[in-house]
Amino acid sequence: MPPTCPHNTEINCRDCRMNALCLPIALELDEVDKLNDIIRRGRPLHRDDHVYDMADEFRAVYAVRSGCIKTYSTDNEGTEQVTGFYLPGEIFGMDGIATASHISAAVALETSAICEIPFSQLEDLGIRMPSLQRYFLKLMSKEIANDQHLITLLSKNSAQERIGTLILSISARNAQRNLSRTRFRLPMSRADIGNYLGLTVETVSRVFSRFQKLDILRVDKKEIEIIDLTRLQHEAGI
Amino acid sequence: MPPTCPHNTEINCRDCRMNALCLPIALELDEVDKLNDIIRRGRPLHRDDHVYDMADEFRAVYAVRSGCIKTYSTDNEGTEQVTGFYLPGEIFGMDGIATASHISAAVALETSAICEIPFSQLEDLGIRMPSLQRYFLKLMSKEIANDQHLITLLSKNSAQERIGTLILSISARNAQRNLSRTRFRLPMSRADIGNYLGLTVETVSRVFSRFQKLDILRVDKKEIEIIDLTRLQHEAGI
DNA sequence: CGACGCGTTGAATGTTGTCAAACCGAGTGG
DNA sequence: CCACTCGGTTTGACAACATTCAACGCGTCG
């Protein structure tokens, strides 16, 4: 395996191809090495492997190196609420800080590699490296901002707008990683999309069909091609 | 004015009647004094006075000492999304950390007193007082948890359940401040409630009427009395 | 007094959910 | 090799809940 292969356990932050998106972006090179020293990289996760479960003790936050992680919570009646999809370069697991135990679960949607960042060590490092501390606060604040965008989406927008917005979000995040903005594979099922956006599977399916009929998207199972980006933005209300 | 009057500008954290809910809860007495030194208390805000506007430079976070603060964001078409209601003892304004400018606005719903906590000084203090740093991270994490509860509410619950849950939330937060759990005044308008919960004013009004007809609530404009708490919890899906 | 903001109520409309059926591809076992 | 199941997806018909549009009541303030 070349050193930059995302599934490689031996990789370090300095060489990781995500270091322009991930925590290292805030750090000087020597600081990156200190961060690298506390990070634990396990073997790749397979589909349906859990990173943590609801109510698990909170010990670490995580960075996605490859694949896709879904976070969700379950209420007392057992119904799931998907709270986020995390792509390479993104950090998840910050929900547990307040209560010392996770209020959501995290599961791999496909074969994924993640970096585990033990929180107590990250806190210690933050005290010695204010830029890291500040960047971590920024990350949490960004998480709040994301959640509030989702709240607005759920509160104000139609099924079509919600789904259009999600596709555009994934497209933009792919572009950040120098992947195609217009052709990609959705890592999540229709059920996950519907759950995340407060819609039924049937509605999700119908909206995909409508977008296809309107020549805005070409949809083949999970493969998506955005044919008319402008019109998709318009239908998404952007 | 007695020293504990919530509108008193001269009050300090040590004597503030909210110190069992607010940031001081994490601190030793001498640390509270250090925190107190950086806090700025302006004159009380009146209804519709803004604490900050969208896109204002992020300089501070804020604690509510009395009254009620509403946060909201506005999209490019000018439609508002209410993102939160903050009661005494609660902290708001953390949305701006990521972007250095606020992504929402904060406005007083009634005469309110707030404490301004300059963020750069809070950061400095946090480096010297790890317990403060940790508690602030907890606060942000709690904000994330709140947002995710709202996401679930919007995504999965009916109008009746959403409104019931909001009333129960305000009731519980009142109880924390040793106010009545069953009789209180809603500080926000029907429009704000609807906006927050993704419903129209008419729907909010209808649900209040239904709860009243079912002898679960007694509603008189903004005055609320919870007559049957158990049944309200049931209707709210709890 | 009249205008206005806010809240309530009614009737009609519509988007989305529910229920049911069928499809499709992948994997399994006879 | 084929029939089979199974999960995920699609489509249709119908029902339900919330929205929309409209009217009205009530209190406040100029």
Fold topology:
The structure is a homodimer of 238-residue chains.
Chain A: H1 29-38, E1 40-41, E2 50-52, E3 60-66, E4 69-74, E5 80-86, E6 91-92, E7 105-108, E8 113-118, H2 119-128, H3 130-156, H4 159-176, E9 183-185, H5 190-197, H6 201-213, E10 217-220, E11 223-226, H7 229-235
Antiparallel strand pairs in A: 1-8, 2-7, 3-6, 3-8, 4-5, 4-7, 9-11, 10-11
Chain A binds a DNA duplex (30 and 30 nucleotides) through residues 158-159, 189-191, 199-206, 208-209, 221.
Written account of the structure:
Two copies of one chain form a homodimer. The first copy, chain A, has 238 residues and is of the alpha+beta class. The first copy, chain A, has helices at 29-38, 119-128, 130-156, 159-176, 190-197, 201-213, 229-235, and strands spanning 40-41, 50-52, 60-66, 69-74, 80-86, 91-92, 105-108, 113-118, 183-185, 217-220, 223-226. The radius of gyration of chain A is 18 Å and the shape is globular. Chain A binds chain B through residues 73, 75, 79, 81, 83, 94-99, 103-104, 123, 126-127, 130, 133-134, 137-145, 147-148, 150-152, 154-156, 195-198, and chain B through 73, 75, 79, 81, 83, 94-99, 103-104, 123, 126-127, 130, 133-134, 137-145, 147-148, 150-152, 154-156, 195-198. The structure holds a DNA duplex (30 and 30 nucleotides).
